[in-house]
Amino acid sequence: MHIELTEMLRCPETHEEAFLVMSTGEMVGRMVRSGILGCPVCRREYPIVKGVVDFSGGGRREAGVSSKASPPVSRLPSPVDAPTLQALLDLSGPGGYVVLVGSAARHAIGLAALMGGIHFVGIDAPSEVEELPVLSLLACETMIPLRRAMARAVVVGPERASPPWLGEALRVLLRGRRLVIEDEGARPPAGVKQLAVGQGLWVGERG
């Protein structure tokens, strides 16, 4: 996980957002390979293992035992190529974050080659997707563990195109920015204006 992403993280427990506190172990450049993130509100702790922040299982309290869970694996194909996805996201200029949910994390390498200076955040990425200097990986079974209105764009994989996850995608998306769902039959939450549907994709913009 890129160390600068720390200020964008939030605890998945149902309480107000608060900045998490990091205790770093191994680092490679600006990427944290091991360590612990702690929540000052509920005092839960979340491990960073091989670069992946594990928010699954609700973490552990200071005197508790961590509950480990592996991110879900998806074998669904990715029907859209990186140049098409880049055009749909409608981003210009470097900086900020693009969130890729589920199997959509597979697009990170292709998009990074076309969109320099943007950092990608994969949520519950497939097991074959590895952390990169341009890609931070977070595992969480219940939500997108990021602060509200922080993403320049969100892409949701087809296996996560359900109301709870789409609601989370809207929560982290900045106003006026694009949401792409790899399921043209998806039903996005209120607050997203539909822009295009077809070829397996639903594209909208947060109002």
Task: Outline the fold blueprint.
Blueprint: E1 21-24, E2 27-28, E3 31-32, E4 34-38, E5 44-49, E6 52-54, E7 60-61, H1 82-89, E8 97-101, H2 108-114, E9 119-123, E10 135-139, E11 151-156, H3 163-172, E12 173-181, E13 192-198, E14 201-206
Parallel strand pairs: 6-10, 8-9, 8-11, 9-10, 11-12
Antiparallel strand pairs: 1-4, 2-3, 4-5, 5-6, 5-7, 12-14, 13-14
Summarize the structure.
This protein is about 10% helix and about 30% strand. About 10% of the residues have low confidence.
Mean pLDDT: 89
% residues in beta strands: 25-35%
The N- to C-terminal Cα distance equals 30 Å
Overall 3D shape: globular
How many strands appear in the DSSP assignment? 14
Give the tally of structural domains: 2
- What structural class do you assign from the helix and strand content? mainly beta
In the CATH scheme, what's the topology name of the largest domain?
Rossmann fold
The CATH architecture category of the largest domain equals: 3-Layer(aba) Sandwich
By CATH reckoning, the class of the largest domain would read Alpha Beta
Question: How would you characterize the overall build of this protein?
Answer:
The protein has 207 residues and is mostly beta strands. The chain has helices at residues 82-89, 108-114, 163-172, and strands at 21-24, 27-28, 31-32, 34-38, 44-49, 52-54, 60-61, 97-101, 119-123, 135-139, 151-156, 173-181, 192-198, 201-206. It starts with 20 loop residues before the first strand and ends with a strand. The model is unreliable at 59-77 (pLDDT under 50). The chain has three helices and 14 strands.
